[in-house]
Design goal:
13 strands; TIM Barrel; alpha/beta
């Protein structure tokens, strides 16, 4: 009997490391409040809905572009990152698990094939690296918000990536190719990590707005209906696979999410997403086409047009009343070097104003801690911001 138990345990070790939990029974799992349960639907909770949680978080997007699955994953670098971030009370990280067409999720590039834009292969090292990432998340008790793809997949100017770029652009214009991408990438991700309590949420794409306002020129514009059919069908597939997994989208900026006179159509509304679900293909349950929470991005160039979200509520940022609002909102990107305040003040005011969390860009730079991505901040800014927040609210420092 002892030999059988030992053998079974050894066989299960890779499963446990990968996050394939039998069911979601961990108090760590983040959920959204429900009126029926006496909790606030604009807030996040853990401990089975008992404890409200505000996400003092950060973007920790990459060590090197596409380092997952192509031989560039440095476990020691990521562990040092998690250790430093955890020690300062950082609760969640947004990480790009693929960055562009040079990553591990490759599409068929033969334009003559009926499977043009379908998934060609995903390097097995990709899943091995993500297993290790989730292992570190559990060890240091930090939630992950993986960003599955980026606008870079569709807009790359790198000559070596043009074929993949064009294949991604073909994929998002074709319902069958979208379903294939979802089935062979997103559903596999959800099956592998959906019950891992340290998966906070899935971010379907980084700043997908730049497919519509393409940096390649107007002739490369992809219509919103194509872009958001992918969003709608992906949310359906995720919910059909595991209804506990939270889904969001870092659209890019507030312009296309409803803003009074500046509104150009709310491309993340339930009604719009449901309207795009065709009665064909694999994922057509329109009732599931809904983002669980919104993820706003904001940089200083947007302020003259839309104001800054840092000193107002998420519903005011959309020119709505609180009664018109029905789900949490985080600020998914915002410079760690803030516009007119310290990052500590930004964490504090967004918490007081009802936002669900703040993910400044960025906390990377380790071991070169002072290095900045896009000149928007680094580890020291995030560290000092977190320290300032917990000085004001010491009772919110996470128990490790």
């Amino acid at each position: 009997m002892k030999k059988i138990v030992i053998i079974l345990f050894i066989l299960m070790m890779p499963v446990l490391a990968s996050g394939l939990f039998a069911q979601n029974t961990s108090p760590a799992k983040i959920t959204i409040g429900k009126v029926a349960n006496g909790t606030n639907p604009l807030k996040f909770y853990n401990n089975f809905g008992k404890d409200e949680i505000y996400l003092v978080a950060a973007n920790h997007p990459w060590h090197g572009f596409n380092s997952f699955g192509i031989g560039g994953f440095d476990y020691s670098w990521w562990e040092k990152s998690f250790e430093n971030l955890s020690s300062e009370g950082i609760r969640a990280l947004r990480i790009w698990i693929t960055c562009d067409g040079g990553g591990p999720v490759r599409l068929i590039t033969n334009e003559e094939s009926e499977k043009y834009g379908h998934v060609d292969n995903i390097d097995s090292r990709f899943w091995d690296d993500l297993d290790k990432l989730f292992e570190l998340a559990g060890k240091y008790r930090i939630y992950l918000m993986p960003t599955l793809i980026s606008f870079d997949h569709f807009n790359s100017k790198n000559a070596s990536l043009v074929a993949q770029r064009n294949a991604y652009r073909a994929m998002i214009r074709n319902t069958k190719a979208i379903d294939n991408f979802i089935s062979n990438y997103i559903v596999k991700f959800v099956n592998r990590y959906g019950n891992n309590p340290w998966l906070f949420a899935i971010d379907l794409c980084n700043e997908i707005v730049w497919l519509y306002e393409s940096q390649l020129g107007k002739e490369y514009t992809i219509p919103w209906d194509n872009i958001c059919e992918y969003i709608a069908r992906a949310t359906i597939a995720i919910k059909e696979t595991n209804s506990d997994v939270l889904v969001t989208l870092g659209l890019g900026f507030i312009k296309y999410q409803g803003r009074g006179n500046e509104q150009e159509g709310n491309r993340t509304s339930d009604a719009y997403l449901k309207s795009l679900v065709k009665n064909e293909g694999l994922y057509k349950n329109a009732n599931l086409a809904r983002l669980d929470f919104f993820s706003d991005h904001h940089y200083s160039w947007m302020t003259p047009y839309y104001g800054s979200p840092m000193r107002i509520t998420p519903w005011e940022y959309r020119n709505l009343t609180k009664d018109q609002f029905d789900r949490p909102v985080i600020i998914g990107e915002f410079p760690a070097v803030s516009e007119k305040s310290t990052l500590a003040e930004d964490y504090i005011t967004t918490y007081k104003n009802g936002w669900g969390g703040l993910f400044p860009w960025t906390s990377t730079g380790m071991p070169d801690l002072g290095r900045q991505i896009d000149g928007a901040g680094n580890w020291f800014h995030v560290r000092d911001g977190a320290r300032g927040f917990y000085k004001e609210f010491p009772h919110l420092f996470p128990k490790r």
